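The pair is quoted verbatim as follows:
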Amino acid sequence: MPDEVETEHAILRTVLYSDLFDYPLTPAEIAHYLIEVPGDPVRVQACLDAPLWLGQLITRVDGYVTLRGREDLVRRRKERSRCSSRLWRKARFFVRILSCMPFVRMICVTGALSMDNSGRRDDVDVMLVTAPNRVWVARVFSLVAVYAGRMAGNTLCPNYLLSEKVLSLERRSLYTAHEFAQMVPLYGFEIYRRMRAANRWVDEFLPNAVRPVKWLPEHRPGLFGRVVKRALERLLEGEWGDRLEAWEMRRKLRKFRARLTCSGGAAILSRDQVKGHFDDHGERVIRAFQRKLEEFHLAGCDCQSAFDHQVTMAPGQTTRDLVSW
């Protein structure tokens, strides 16, 4: 087990990372997301109650831990928690629709909402896992939920779709590990467990985050939804589905080719993955975190085990830039 000094260093790193998102943590959350150091809530609480040196840098307000001088973030977190509660009701509505779409095998809420840190106008970000060779078809049908969300005044953003053949994430960094560890599965728990097993590298960054802090019951489509889903899958399992898959992939690549002029992004466009991030937020976060570590004279942690800027395209494509949704 780590000693108290090592644990306090890990606590400070964890608080500094969360501070990049203006997000104070509870002691239990600090233990859960403790960076690179195994720990437990009791040990973390003991270090917070009787710190050796950490008390000079952090403070506690209403049960939350934050950097000194950043106490106002507690009020902001409470406000965002109330906004998130309302947005979660919308998210469940979207999940009910998406779970009935053909070839959708898993749905996870990601981003700010997964941490109850959404503002009033934030999107509902979701990751979808699809059946093999039907990523692009599933994306077409997911637009039904996107349009339904717009009519309801909220924006659904299915910003990452991948086939169940490629559950292992390519980019490995503290940012990716955190985004993965905090996402909340709502449909397809068996696929989620397989995805966790395929990404054991996350434990190197977050050894205590073995399951999401927020764990909600799995949604199960009703009889009508299951019948519709199965009927559409039977219709599109064969040649017609293959043609639609290939056509949609080619169409999107042609549509955005003129915009693919900026390097340094995180988009992935292939037969098995569709990730449309025009701007690489993760890289900026990692660089900002490294600056924070230097500012507080902390030994740098290995925030990136592999952080390239490769944009994966479909076979035969040469463009290496980003695609916006």
User: Anything to note?
Assistant: Residues 5 and 52 are 7 Å apart (CA to CA). Residues 77-238 form one domain. The two ends are 45 Å apart (CA to CA).
